Amino acid sequence: xxxxxxxxxxxxxxxxxxxxxxxxxxxxxxxxxxxxxxxxxxxxxxxxxxxxxxxxxxxxxxxxxxxxxxxxxxxxxxxxxxxxxxxxxxxxxxxxxxxxxxxxxxxxxxxxxxxxxxxxxxxxxxxxxxxxxxxxxxxxxxxxxxxxxxxxxxxxxxxxxxxxxxxxxxxxxxxxxxxxxxxxxxxxxxxxxxxxxxxxxxxxxxxxxxxxxxxxxxxxxxxxxxxxxxxxxxxxxxxxxxxxxxxxxxxxxxxxxxxxxxxxxxxxxxxxxxxx
Length: 276
Known about the structure:
Elements (H helix, E strand, L loop, with lengths): L12 H15 L5 H7 L7 H7 L6 H10 L4 H15 L3 H15 L3 E4 L11 H8 L9 H6 L7 H13 L13 E4 L7 H19 L16 H24 L26
Helix pairs in contact: 4-5, 5-6, 7-9
């Protein structure tokens, strides 16, 4: 008998439903897709299969009926409702609201880096040091602190960075403590984001040469996509970012700072598709 999956570990309701269905089916043989379709009052024999495959959107009223059918408690229902909102949102604003609710349900604190604190994105080692100081018991040795990064930074750079982070209120001096997840406030246009993304990309090549496969993960795809599929690929990457953020927040044994780069961009101009 399979254990029911933890809904708080999911960012997509379809994947959760698939795993929850498989687990329920392992001990309740009558709990078939046909049974679910009948209980939901669907006239289509493939309704639930279409939901699992993403071919049909799950409406809120059907979602709550499924939540009752799967016997979700009140907390699980809140997560399920939020997953539907995250996956069904039509605008970035709606997605952001749903994502913020998901973070709150998971107990992950967050904070926006507004325009007056965009200097945080001026150098790659500002975010790196902020993460490092959350797990490293810093005692004022800036040379040792700077040497912890790869590539290492100078004691002067480390001291200046710590002072900036304290001044901006992005770290708290003293013992390591959990920090809120930082989200960039995209309401104001700035060149800082492009600057730091360029710096992150420049870090990748030395890391590729220095670290063994067991210590890093580099992979690539070259493929064709329509504009609609490109949009869906962006959504998949966004969902992965959320899962990794959740993984980091729950990891009590974190002892190293990692840089995750997700890149998908055109390497050709659009062409006219030849139809058969």
